[in-house]
Amino acid sequence: MKSQLPLFPESASSVSPQVDALFYAWTVISILFTALIAILILYFMARYRRRHEDQVGLPERAPIWLEIGWSAIPLAIALAMFAWGTKVFVQIYRPPSDAVVYYGVGKQWMWKFQHPEGQREINTLHVPVGQAIQMKLTSEDVIHSFFVPAFRVKQDALPGRYTSIWFRPTRPGVYHLFCAEYCGGEHSKMIGSVVVLEPHDYESWLAGGQPHTLSGAELFAQLACQTCHGEGGSGSGMAGMAARAPRLAGLYNSKVALSDGRSVVADESYIRESILNPMAKVTAGWQPIMPTFQGSVTEEQLTQLISYIRSLSEGDSAARTGP
Amino acid sequence: MNTSATAESVVASPETGFERPNYLNAEYGVRSWLLTRDHKRIAILYLVSVSIFFAIGSLFAMLIRLELLTPEGDLMQPDTYNRVFTMHGVVMVFLFLIPAIPAVLGNFLVPIMIGARDLAFPRINLASWYVYNLGGLFVLWAMVNGGVDTGWTFYTPYSTNYSNTHVIATGLGVFIIGFSSIFTGLNFVVTIHRMRAPGMTWFRLPLFIWSHYATSLIILLGTPVIAITILLVAVEKGLHLGIFDPKLGGDPVLFQHLFWFYSHPAVYIMILPSMGVISELIAAFSRKRVFGYKVVAFASIAIAVLGFLVWGHHMFVTGQSIYAATVFSVISMLVAIPSAVKVFNWTATLYEGSISYQTPMLYALGFIGLFTLGGLTGTMIATLGIDVHLHDTYFIVAHFHYVMVGGTIMGYLGGLHYWWPKMTGRLYPAFLSRLSALLVFVGFNLTFFPQFILGYLGMPRRYWAYPEEFQVFNVLSTAGASILGVGFILPLCYFIWSMRYGKKSGDNPWGAIGLEWDTPSPPPTENFYTVPVVTHGPYEYNPQEVHERTSHPEARVG
Amino acid sequence: MASTAYDNRLEGLAAPHGGHHPSLQHQFDSLEQQKESSTLGMWMFLITEIMFFGGLFTAYVIYRSTLHGVFAAASHELNVNLGAVNTAVLIGSSLTMALAIRAAQVNRQKLILLFLFLTMLLGSTFLVIKGFEYAEKFEHSLVPGPGFQFMGMTYRGFAPDPEHVSPEVLQVGDKAQIFFSLYFIMTGIHALHMIIGIGVLLWLFILSWKGRFDSTYYNPLECAGLYWHFVDIVWIFLFPLLYLIGAHVH
């Protein structure tokens, strides 16, 4: 698949043909402009070369339309390309509704991934072909960047927050995964691969029994979250007592009113912050009694907890929209 | 070539045995140089310092290219490589590209071109050179004590919390060098505003002055921001005053905003003076007024202003909002317009000119080609959809080298070849210098063009080892770098040679016009024997044109 | 100023140097041109200063909004009274600075000395008070770094009982480090500007002592005045931003 002198990168995602079209359009424009300038220069050099020592140039004849013209034409081209580029950009960053969420954590110098099914891998990411996949990225230390050239996508992984990118692989194969943001010593060894499998191959890979670790639900129980948030985050108190903390089912992506009068959307970053730093944004009507879990959960465990809380919401909303 | 009636009488000075008093023979001895307040001597001091740092930076570049000859990292350890590319960036950006043209050519020419005796603040000018070297010493100290490995961008939290190299010393070096830039910029602005010769109106200023004026504005507005940013990194690392630390709720992306608020306009600090040089060269070697003089002048100002509004295009993949990205992208497109207009105007200047192919002109024409490509690829990566793929790949590396090496260094070398006879009174060998211009052009393209393809294929920046399929283009690039190296060493040799053995150039070897050509080569200490009085615009080679202007002073074109 | 042997040699060739005031430097044609140039230069320098502090203010404003509550609580730890006194002291020093320039304009040599002295005195008073404030922060472990402890989470109506501070409160307090880092950096850099300003005034004091300034030549005084007023104005922004905004939250 990889020849010794490749001129074009592999193209293996739904968005890459569009990026390529944009790129080739710009390439053609660039070649035309450069050629135009080069030919004019060479022609003028030959045509108007100095014939005798005292020769001077002819007076400038400057029709104003010339200046206007060569400002307006590049402007029009640049704005058209800007519009096209922005359209493609929005597609790269706005995930479709059927996207499945995977989590990725960058760390000096490796990538750790977690599948929606709880499967975890390091430096290699297996995904099924044709499935829209949204990567939610964060970092344990410095800034990294998730870059798969064959998919034409790139997104920085920042410490302390979640960023996201999506892609839909279109061809099975093994593709480079690079860290594109310089992250210290072994930056150039922070290379992994994305393995795109046919759906049934992916199923059998999943069934292949990767070492199973604590799932989000087990972690939830182990950390005794249910003591305050109720079994399964139901928000009902233990043994008939009043609950001490807000309900978590249905929390994800909902609007939360805070005790200082503001409100936030409960996305990954909010949930993460609330686990690590409960006092920062306290839900209105609740006492700030939650202890911090900073230092007692890892970035990966956080992603597991968050995906568990997400799953509560899905079940919940399904229940609500049910009969 | 009569720019001013009064200057005309002094120009002609036949070659006799008598050596006229000039700034070089006014005083002798090390002390007379180290304590000088003459802007021309300070320019020479800068020339020496800047050349030394350019040599150091080039050495690092050679190490990078050697390491990348093979896919495996076999020449040095990854930690060493990281230090090498960081030091290459720091030295080249802060110690060479930013000061090169303003501090050497600008220092020498700004007062002469506007008919002043010196810059407004000669002592501050000398201080700027000392401050520059002091900053350079900090960087050198860090370098010999193990270097720094953050990349020239000092991104947090790597620089503040993780790197255990000499971030603080290097940062302080950059901080100090900032002052030398500010001193120079401040001097230029005040000098251009207040010290123009009688009759030197704003629209009679050479374009070199316009571009230096625009550059100075960027320096004054931008440099303080990088100063405070780097200072924040240093106190965060040294004194634990956390500002960007994500563990404390700090925002590492805020650092990037502050950093690029300066460092993007810094690109224009590097390229605008070079554009000024090119305008002078094109006019002088086609003996023609620069086409659309006013448009070119205002294009410089437009680039300076718009340059401050585009910094966010360095952060398209950090997760900034789509709306912010859109705004930064469209403004970045707008910057391309004044740049494109300049290229068209230069090309149009050649039309019906009297073109001679002296060495400086070869550099100027090379500049136009390379800058066109650098600029076009710049608009490519300002396009949001493409930048996601190309960000932090070799495409970016190739793009900014086209602008910085293909733009700034071509302009710097062209300018140096053009004004060398003015600075030293000597000529350099014509054939060798043409050969070196050709080597630079060919070597440069061979080095950096393959990197565009590498970047599109997806090779990330700052990689010490890379997958095998990228090797062919890396080998080409290294081969080109060797040619480029020869192209840079040649001028160094013949310039030094010419100082002693070069033919005497006479006052105006190119038959160019401009106040600097109306005074002897080398110029006397206070630049002119009599205060020049300027009666018309800067590039009026054609007597017919001069006549038209004087008889219809209102009928100005542009 | 300092004319070299070479300058003298050129004297016959070069244009006459205008008025030959002892303070006229060789590159200028007239005292007026020199004055305009140095004033313009000073303004340009102040623009760079605005951008320098501008970077800090930007960082402050952004964190003020993202770490809203923490900043409000932390700002409570600052001593508003001392800050207010210092504001008055600085405004007073700007007045005496302006009076010193006025004294030069009307040729009152002794008054120049008096007002310059008062300006330096007020400037030093400011620094001493600032020193006391810093000492207080050190005593209360409010200096960012390993020993940092912040228990002032008094916002949102949960008044802390100093006896029973829960670990959660301490942990949130960590974020207040950013506030105090900015506080120390902003006021520290401001204080550094004050120290430089006092040094410049001291130098001008000596020159005034030698009788160098009068109504024909007082430009250095004017430029130093511009700088002094600028440093004053920076404080006028720092004081409300750091001490006052959000203090009502409690």
Give the chain pair forming the largest contact, with residue counts: A-B, 92 and 97 residues
Estimate the mean pLDDT confidence of chain B.
91
Strand content of chain A: 15-25%
Q: Total number of β-strand segments of chain A? A: 12
Strand order of the largest sheet of chain A: 3-2-1-5-8
What structural category characterises the helix and strand content of chain B? mainly alpha
Which geometry of chain A do the CA atoms define? elongated
> With helices defined by DSSP (H or I, 4 residues minimum), what is the helix count of chain B?
17
- Regions with little confidence, pLDDT below 50 for 5+ residues of chain B: 1-17, 552-558
In terms of quaternary structure, what is this? heterotrimer
What does this structure look like?
The complex is a heterotrimer of chains A (323), B (558) and C (250). By secondary structure, chain A is of the alpha+beta class. Chain A contains 7 helices and 12 strands. A 5-stranded mixed sheet of chain A has the order 3-2-1-5-8, covered by helices on one side. Chain A has a 5-stranded mixed sheet with strand order 4-10-9-6-7. Chain A has a two-stranded antiparallel sheet with strand order 11-12. In chain A, helix 1 (16-47) runs antiparallel to helix 2 (64-93) and helix 4 (216-222) packs across helix 7. By secondary structure, chain B is an all-alpha fold. Chain B contains 17 helices and no strands. The model of chain B is unreliable at 1-17 and 552-558 (pLDDT under 50). Chain C is mainly α. In chain C, helix 2 crosses helix 3 (68-75). In chain C, 35% of the residues are buried. At the A-B interface, helix 1, helix 2, strand 7 and strand 9 of A face helix 4, helix 6, helix 9, helix 11 and helix 12 of B.
Kindly summarize this structure in a few lines.
The complex is a heterotrimer of chains A (323), B (558) and C (250). With 558 residues, chain B is mainly α.
What topology emerges from the helices and strands here?
The complex is a heterotrimer of chains A (323), B (558) and C (250).
Chain A (H helix, E strand, L loop, with lengths): L15 H32 L16 H30 L6 E8 L2 E5 L5 E3 L1 E5 L4 E7 L4 E5 L4 E5 L5 E5 L5 E7 L12 E6 L1 H9 L8 H7 L3 H4 L25 E3 L5 E3 L2 H9 L22 H23 L2
Parallel strand pairs in A: 1-5, 4-10
Antiparallel strand pairs in A: 1-2, 2-3, 5-8, 6-7, 6-9, 9-10, 11-12
Chain B lengths: L4 H7 L18 H5 L4 H29 L10 H37 L7 H23 L13 H5 L4 H28 L12 H33 L12 H35 L6 H14 L15 H29 L8 H24 L1 H7 L3 H31 L5 H28 L13 H31 L41 H9 L7
Helix pairs in contact in B: 3-4, 3-5, 3-16, 4-5, 4-7, 4-8, 4-9, 4-14, 5-7, 7-8, 8-9, 8-10, 9-11, 9-12, 9-14, 10-11, 11-12, 12-14, 12-15, 14-15, 15-16
Chain C lengths: L4 H6 L20 H36 L1 H8 L4 H26 L3 H31 L27 H7 L2 H34 L9 H26 L6
Helix pairs in contact in C: 2-3, 2-7, 2-8, 3-7, 4-5, 4-8, 5-7, 7-8
